[in-house]
Amino acid sequence: MGSHKKKGLFLYLTVSTSSYQVEISNTYGLHIRPKLGLLYLTATLQQRKDLNCDIWDQTISFFTIDQLINAIDSGEYLFVGFYSAISLESNVIECIKRIRQDSETKIPILVGGPSFPNAEQFLRAGGNIVCNGEGEETICEIYDYITGNQTLEDIKGITYISDGNIILNNPRPLIPNIDKIPFPDYSRLEFKHYCNYYTFTMKKPYMTMITSRGCPYNCSFCDSHALWGSKTRVRSVDNVLTEIDELVGKYKVRYIAFQDDVFGLSYDWTDEFCDKLIQRNYPLNWMCILHPFSFKKNPRKMLQKLRHAGCDLITTGLQSAHPEILTRLNRNQSEPEYIRELVNISRSVDMLSLVSFIFGSPGETLETIQTSIRFAMETKPNYAKFYNMEILPGSHLARQYKPGTQLCEFTKEELDKFCRVATRKFYLRPVILSRNVSFILRHNPTWLLIALKFLPTIVRGVGFSKKNEGPHQ
Question: Is the pTM for the entire model greater than 0.85?
Answer without folding.
Answer: yes
